[in-house]
Amino acid sequence: MDIEFLVKVIGVYVATLCFAILINVPPRALNLGGLVGVASYLVYLTYNSIFGGYVGGNVFGAFTIGILGMLAARYKKMPIIVFNIPALVPLVPGGQAYEVMKYIATGNTHLAFVYLMQVAMIAGALAIGFLLAELAIQLFFHVTHLLKSFVS
């Protein structure tokens, strides 16, 4: 196993955990929230290594957060937002947002606009990933409800 990969995974776990502590997530949800964050980042890295591109990776990463966050919320009997918000931290386009501000401050509006478009595309990709996860969850529950009523 590559040491750089292991450092990234541990860093994502710690960052997710620290942000969860910062926003007062209950202690019994911390570990599972960190694991949801790591799983979503692994999906993001896998997508990027196979297909390239940060937008698709963020869609699938957010989809993973949506699905695993729902499973974690049901398992711990807690609100889903307790798991989704901290797990989103590794996918947030903070570096690109910093570059936007830097290039605006230095007067390089062309590069600022390029990075602003990246931030907008990543934010949209995250929203689409959460939307698709919610759609998949609702569809799953609807189909299982139909099957239960059909069998009964």
From TrEMBL:
Highest taxon of the lineage: Bacteria
Compartment(s) of residence: Cell membrane
Keyword flag Transmembrane helix: yes
Membrane topology listed for this record: Multi-pass membrane protein
GO terms for cellular component: plasma membrane
Membrane-crossing residue ranges in chain numbering: 6-23, 53-73, 110-133
Family: Belongs to the ThrE exporter (TC 2.A.79) family.
Protein known as: Integral membrane protein
Species of the source: Fructilactobacillus fructivorans
